[in-house]
Amino acid sequence: MEVTFIGSGDAFGSGGRLQPCIMVKNGEHCFTFDFGLSALIGLKQQQLSPNAVDTIILSHLHGDHCGGIPFLLMDAMLGAKREAPLRILGPEGTEHHLSKMHEILFPGSSVMTPKFSVDYIELSPGDSIRQGDLTITAIEAMHTLETKPLATRVESNGKSIVYTGDGACTEELVNLTAGADLLIAESYFFDKPVKWHLNYPDISLLKAKKTVLTHMSDNMLRQKDNIPELCAYDGMKIKI
Fold it and tell me: Which residues of the chain fall short of a pLDDT of 70?
């Protein structure tokens, strides 16, 4: 698997970073964890085709994690001339939430019908589903309740990636990370707990073979050169 951090930032542009979007190429398939408002810009900055993405896995329904999807769909219909199906996996209510968001951002767009299929698959905590050669397991994250937050583990061809999304440390999250080849972990604040988020003091509790920190506030970014963990930046690539 090749992992590219299209956006490694938080909701507020800390450090001038784009909002969350992590692309994973797995053989002929390509999926992303989250698709923030700036994700389409990030893909084009990296000279990556949005049409290459066949699956999007959403951690929760805050705009910095899902708000780029209406822009992706509009570009797919009007600019990129997408033909291939798109799968969007997310928590309960994803399809309804994104449909409302699309019409708010692009009034009148609800009458448009894409020439490609858009398949919504809604996940509940405890689900483990198969999509092609991916096995996706979801657990409940401890974040804003209304966003239906999830942390996910994706396994394929003997490799595994855990993505925390946003959410405080829980025993279930610790267990989800056990033995993972790569953990992509929120690390929002360095030196104090921030409610509903994973913060740097929590990182040592997680159990993956390799950890990359992302979704960092300015407070955390000031410490990135003083800690042993790898810290993501926009455009960073790693292989597992």
Answer: none
